[in-house]
Amino acid sequence: MFDPISLLVGAGLVGVGWAAGRFGRRPARNGRPEPAICGCGHDLALHDRTEGSCHAEIVRKNAVGLREWVTCGCRRYTGPTPLEEFFTPPVLPPNDR
After folding, report:
1. Domain range holding 72?
2. CA distance 26 to 8
3. How many domains does the chain have?
C-alpha cells in the first residue's frame, strides 16, 4: 500500500527545504527603498526645501556635562536629488506674481 522509499524521499525533501529556509540567507523583508540621507545623517523630510536648513534636533553635552537638545547645524541638504525634482518643477506655491 505505502511505498517506504517514496515516503523517505519525501520526508528528506521536506527536511532539506526546512533547513534551507531556516538557516539560509534571506532577502530583506521590507520592500521599501532606503530614505535619502543627508551628510548630517537626517532624512530629506527634515530639511526645508526653500531655505535648505535642517529641522532635526540632536543631543549634545553642554559645558556642565549634561545632555541638551539643539537644532542640527546642517545648512543645506547634500544627499541624493529626489526624482521629482528631475522630472517636474515645483507646482506650489506659484512664484510668478
Report:
1. 56-88
2. 28
3. 1
